[in-house]
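Thread title: Can someone regenerate the structure for this chain?

I was given the following input by a collaborator and told the matching structure tokens would be attached. They weren't. Posting the sequence so someone can regenerate them.
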Amino acid sequence: MIPIPPGEIGKAICEKYFPEEEWEKEYRLKTGIIRRISEYTGFNFNEVLELPYPYFLLLNKESWIASYTKSKEGMEILKNLWRLQQTKADEKSVRMHSGGGCNGGRN
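Best answer:
Regenerated them for you:
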């Protein structure tokens, strides 16, 4: 799964990009990850549960990403998660928003 920061920041990201109503929490699937991996790989539940842990984690991430690539909304979520993980400044955007403009302030 895509790493989400712990604490309040992670909670805020989840609430914004993965909204969930109170009743949905009550009916959250307990075997959802196993089912998703099973559908992604064609393995049955027992085969998924017997996977070496690193391979299980890899398939968990891959199947999670694959499930979001099936819709335009899912692709937008993946794009936002990618954007939130970026640590390098977008210098062009910084200049534009700080009054520098595209022409170095000669707008």
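Residues 30-85 form one domain.
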